[in-house]
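For reference, the entry.
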Amino acid sequence: MTEIDKFDWLEESLMKSLGFIGKVTLLIVVALYSLPSFAADKRIGILVYDKVLSSDVTAPAEVFGVATRKSWFSEYEVLLIGVDRDKSVVTTEEGIRLTVDKTIYDAPKLDALIVTSSYVMDTLFDNKDLTKFLKAQASKVSWLASNCSGAFLYAHAGLLDGYTATTWAGGEKQLQREFPNINVVEDRNVVVDRNRVSSNGGIPSYQGALVLLALMSSERKAKAVFETIQLNRLISWTDVTRYLPEK
């Protein structure tokens, strides 16, 4: 049980046993506990580059950005990691300009890395510096995640061999054919195998990000973010938890 899970359990237990005044007092304490702090020393990196698909970036950026405003996740910050050495701004496929926080050449210290996709990725596959960066991060981070054809980036670096994963809907057979050492799953929005989390990309990138957040914190905390961004107006929480590993 993580420290966050212990807090959740303690809070629920106390709410059952306390009277009205005690519950009010506890709620005040919980509210104060939920206020954001500014001591971020852990980092979630999202890979960005020109022509990256917007939703592959914005979905995890929103989910984890909201989470970092909570005290239970305030030790984290979200960084956009650029592929080019001297490019401070990238433009997505849909024309959105994104400011780069760090580049792969800065060798940022990350706790989780989320790799994104574009319609044409050959130059990324051939980028030896990027492959070196991915391999180096894989040996250090706690979590590797991908959206859409970002799984192909990990695959080209050999980082999905022996793992179960998915990619963009319709691209699963190609991933399996080109990389037979990966157990590729079809018709599943999010796949978790140990510390690898892959999603179909696009809107399912939100599900992938929430699954990763639940694994990094707790289901209860991730659900709070799910409701904060009002994704509960579109899908049920079980449409996220169904992709979590069985306990």
Notes: Confidence is low (pLDDT under 50) at residues 23-37. The longest strand covers residues 42-48.
